[in-house]
Structures are given as C-alpha cells and as structure tokens.
Amino acid sequence: MIKTTLFIIFFILAPIAIAEEAPKYNFATTQANPTITIQPGDTISVPAIYFFNIYGNRITHVSLSLTSFPKGWDVKLEPELHQVQVNVSGTIVTATENLYVAPSQPVKEVPAAVPEDMTYLTLGGVDGNVPAKVAYLNITVPADTPLGGTYTISVNAVGSWFGQAGTLAFSQERSFDFKVQTITRNFTEEEVQSTPEVKKGSDSLIYIAIVLIVLAIVGVGLYVRKKKK
Amino acid sequence: MNKKLNACIIGLITIGILAFLATNLQTVNAASTGTATASVTVLDTIDIVSSYNDSGSAITFGSLAAGTSNNEATNHLIISIQPDTNVKTTMNQRGNATFTGSSGSFNIDNLTYYNTDSSPSPVNMTTSDATLSDWTNIPVPTGSAITKNAYYWLNIPNAQSGGGYQTTIYINVVKYT
User: How far is Cα B92 from Cα B140, in angstroms, rounded to an integer?
Assistant: First the structure.
C-alpha cells in the first residue's frame, strides 16, 4: 500500500528521428599533434582535435572546454561555444555547442574545395578519406615567458545527442592534453666553451710506441756507454 | 755482437715508428658517416559508438514502486570501440548528482551498474569517473570492433513522490596510460 506510487524512469530519450534504424551515437576523435611549439609573444592557431562520425546515424553535438592552461596565457578554442536552434522531430530546441558532426561516409577522393572548418583524414582500417570537423587552439604566450619551458593545455570534449522530445540524452566525454614548448624562431649557434680535443687512435698503441722508442733510446745509450769503456 | 745490437735497436725504433704511424693512420682512415634524423608523430584516434541492445533509444526502467530495490533496466548499453581506434583505452562512467523530475529528485547512488547481468556485482554510480576491471586497458581493436556492455539497476527511495525522473550519464573513453 505504501509503495503504490509508480515511477517512470528513464535516462535517455530518443535521439533525432532521422531514420527508423536503431540509433548509433558516434563520438570519434583524432588528436592533432599533441606537441605545440611557440615563441613567447606570438599568437598561433593550430588544429587541436578532429571530430568525425562515420559509424553513427545521429548528429553529434560537441562542446569543448579548457580545463587547464598556464596562468597569464590567452588560450581560446575555435569555433567558440555558441547557441544554435535545432528542429528535433518538430520541436525547436537550443543546442549549446562548439560544433556538430553529421553522419558521413569516407570518400575516395578529397573534394577540390574543402570548407575551412573541415578536413579529410586517412585512418587505419577505413577505406577512403574521412570527412572531419576541426577544432583549433588559439594560443597567445606572454612575451616574458621563459624559453625552453614545457606547459600543458588540457581540453575536455563532450559529445551529446538530442532525444526524441528534444532533451539532451547521455553524453560521451574525452579529455586531451597538449604540451606547449616555448622556443625562439631565430636560429643562432655560438661556441659557449672551447674544449679542444684531438682524437687520435687507440691510446694503448701510442703507449706501446712510446715504450718501444724509449727502449730503443736506452739501448743506444747503453751501447754508447759500453763502447766508451 | 755490435751488429746484432744495432739490428735490435733499429728494429725497436722501426716497430715504434710503425706503431705510432698506425695510431694516426687509424684516424685518417676512419669512415666518415653522415646522419639524418627522421621523425614522425602518429596521431591518436578514439572512435566509440554507443547503442542499445533492443535497438531502443533509452535505458528504460519502466514503471516502478517507491521503496523497491535492484530493479534491472529492460535494456542495456553497448559501447563499441571501432577498428580505427589506434590506442589502448579505458572506459569510465559517471552520472549527474541526482535523478530529477517535476516531483522532486533522488541521489545518483541509487543507480548501480556492471558489465554483465549474469551474477553481477553492481557498483554504485557516482559523480566521479569510475571504471571496472573489464573496462580498463582495453586493447587496440584489430580488424573488428571491441564491444563492452553496461547493465543498470535502480533503487527507488521510500516515499519518493510519483512522476517521471531522469538523469544524464557520461561515458568517458580515454587513452589508457
């Protein structure tokens, strides 16, 4: 009697009804070069993460956040987080995302004109070129940052999908670390310490030669002395 | 006698000079080898597909009574690590702090999960990433996807108000280190 109240419990509402097939939520990433070099005082924009969706059948909404970066640095993610209105099965909802990745297929040939926010990847186990969206790291390093340092920038990416009623369903998360090395672009080289070194052959042979020559000289000396007597 | 001694001395000097020359000739004759450095950075790819065993679109518990325990979901989550993944991975899971609904809320630790529903030892869901032994150090797929399962059970607190509740769970598949 006391337990008569019924509940309807669910986690995940249905995603966008693009097709009748069972939903497959694909969150696929390739991290670009995890080592970035920059000269203090410079600003650079580098590809950070590639997102693609070749095994899913639902649009993946990706939101990105910086979880750590050096104090005093100006670090931004591009595209920036923004809101966009989406029609999910007739319901208008607002998505907050940096980018979205629609289901796609690898292509044999990379198109001549590739949009600025896209690229094509070649991946092991996949025939053809995989269309991918690109997220960039925009980094400005203060001019007084010491050369030769290594710093870490961490990015968290969340892939999520809309449910049938327009509510966000479950999410996949992934974190990425980038090592940023401060260098100078101007190549210079000068001698700091001069340590002349004449490398000869085996030292043991030199010693043998010296011993033999000394023996010869001593022998000559003894001979001359004997002669005089 | 003198001739023998002379010959001996000349021989010693000759051997000494030859040994000295030999040490220097070694340097002269040393092979000169140029080197070049080749470097490459192989990029890490992680490709994960989530789906449900019943082709549904939600982990569903249906209608439950307050105060009931260990109610198994009618379906389960399937996580597939696709063959283009080129790193070992670890799969973590966490949830929001509560199930929420128009009638109230209850804590996420009422939700438990495990990698099988055959003799399971369910683990309480928390707001921090947690893994299972079967979900860590997952090898690189070779040729076909590697599949992992997540089963769920739910307790409904006593006197919990009637209504619909929901939460969000996060599947976090990262490079195994």
Answer: 17
Q: Are B132 and B92 in contact (CB under 8 A)?
A: no
The residue among A26, A158, A53, A51 whose CA lies nearest residue B49 is A26
Per-residue pLDDT tens listing for chain B (177 residues) = 567 767 767 777 777 677 666 666 555 555 678 889 998 989 999 999 999 888 777 788 989 999 999 999 999 999 999 999 999 999 999 999 999 999 999 999 999 999 999 888 999 999 999 999 889 999 999 989 999 999 999 999 999 999 999 888 899 999 998
With an 8 Å Cβ cutoff, are B66 and A5 in contact? yes
Size of interface A-B (CB pairs under 8 A): 217
Burial A39-74, CB ≥16 within 10 A → b, else e: ebeeeeeeebbbbbbbbbbbbbbbbbeeeebbeeee
**Would the CB atoms of A8 and B67 count as touching at under 8 Å?**
no
Q: Which of B5, B27, B167 has the CB atom closest to A200's CB atom?
A: B27
- What letter represents residue A38's amino acid? I
Confirm or reject contact between B7 and chain A (CB < 8 A). Answer: no
> Virtual CA dihedral for A221, A223, A226, B2, nearest 10 degrees?
-170
Look-up: residue for tokens 């992992």? B148
3-state secondary structure (DSSP) of residue B8: helix
| Region class of A20: left (phi > 0), else alpha (psi between -120 and 50), else beta | alpha
- Substitution target in B20, B26, B28 with the highest count of A β-carbons within 10 Å is B20
> What is the DSSP code (8-state) at residue A129?
B
Chain A residues close to B141, C-beta within 8 Å? 125
Minimum-distance CB partner of A213 among B5, B16, B171: B16
Q: Which residues contact A214 (CB under 8 A, 6 or more apart)?
A: none
